[in-house]
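Consider the following assembly input.
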Amino acid sequence: MSTYLKERKKKKMKFVSFQLKDGNVVGEVKEKGAQDQWGIVKKDKVIMLSGEGVPYSTLIDFIEGGEVALSYIKGLDMEALPSYSFEQVNIAAPLTVKKNVICVGKNYRDHALEMSNQDPNAIPKHPVLFTKPHTSLNHHQGTIPLYKNITSQVDYEGELAVVIGKRGKDIPKEEALNYIFGYSILNDVTARDLQKQHIQFFKGKSLDQHAPFGPYIVHRSHIEDPQNLSIKTFVSEELRQNGNTRDMIFTIAELIEVVSAGMTLEPGDVIATGTPSGVGSGFKPPKFLQSGDVVRIEIEGIGILENKVE
Ligand code: MG
């Protein structure tokens, strides 16, 4: 490994929100209203940054702090801060969104085709936009409920998530990447029958815990080219989606330009950039999620998001 690569690896900033496990209680659900801690992941440790003396109590506060916040934590002596092993913490969703998660539908050609019986007219000329509410957020290792009383077609969609770091409106695509704080992973879980039945995507995309998000946000400075990242989804070890972000129809920069036209983007806003082909409903017969399945999404340079189905 070159010295340059080693240097980059060493400094990789992966931000995480978490709760400390209480004594021996493993996997305890946090009390309602309890605030998540936040920190940075170094090797196999979580270094807590939300402690005493640090002026940013949550990861969203920190992101809102912009460049000032970033230089502040770069000046901290990480060795002197409290650190925990992954066994001592429960990973939370990186942040709670203020507006809904902004989602892009049919942003990979092959996926647009698989959802439309290979109809070439299904390839969108403008980004297809919809949202998921904050109540749908879930975290790494959180359970995905099936809601069998209302749906029988719960599906997965592995996606690169973009986290906005700077407030902006009418952002030109040439400057768009500078408005990003970092990148993460989002599983745009979808109840296909509800998605179709209610015409608009909203209900079928919005069931509680149907937006696993995380486990980390990797700072944008570590992602050389966000349009060249391998993205894979496994369901119980079977490779279902095997794509690359270079195959997006609308690039991340173009999406930010379109979304921010006449509409303010704020720090902590999340854009889920669409899913490659290989979703359950694209198979014949379809392969919807079943109880006990484990969905694992891997994005190059970003991490692994894994969730078990209830
Ligand atoms: Mg999607």
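Confidence is low (pLDDT under 50) at residues 1-8, 24-29. Ask yourself how this observation constrains the way the partners meet.
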